[in-house]
Design brief:
Blueprint (H helix, E strand, L loop, with lengths): L1 H15 L5 H15 L4 E4 L7 H15 L5 E5 L2 H17 L18 E2 L12 E5 L9 E7 L4 H4 L2 H12 L5 E10 L14
Parallel strand pairs: 1-6, 2-4, 2-5, 5-6
Antiparallel strand pairs: 3-4
Helix pairs in contact: 1-2, 1-3, 2-3, 3-4
Amino acid sequence: MVNDFYAFLDAWNDVLGLGTPAHHRTIMEFLVSIWTTPPHRGLLMAFRHSGKSTVVGIFAACVLRMNPSTRILILSAENNLAARMVTHIRHILENHPMCKDLIPATKKEWAHDRITVNRPIGIREPSVICQGIHGNITGMRSDLIICDDIEVPNTSNTAQKRENLRERLRELDFILSPNGTMIYIGTPHTMDTIYRTHE
């Protein structure tokens, strides 16, 4: 299966007129291993400007290509940060040569904070939706939760904020579908980083 994700990654870089860096293939391999291997939990930490969020967006788009029924929730420290990931995924879907069949003729949910691809009817949630970590996620269901930079100074610069963040993250288990996948992406901002409890 990882070769399908590699092919998707390489094809996207071809669209951009770029080659695929070796460490991006390593990141993709890691993400696929989380997606395919129980307990489907993983933490991705890499140096700044390594392109980890870029590869995660490509990974999410490929997941939708392989299974359009997948429901993806993007969480970040603030809603506008999460929306950037949704915009990235939407851009890939609109321009990737392997994703043409996913684009709906009528784009009822095709915005900066949520998108819905062509898929079987009867699924309530959008294909991809985003929220700030302290936003309203009550009643949501997701097959893939991507926590992208949820630990930042504004959410982790005091012990109380870190505890509030940990409590919020514990709620995600009630949103995730059985056998769903949860991926954390980020950089520690404190010695008492929340990532120590999600390794």
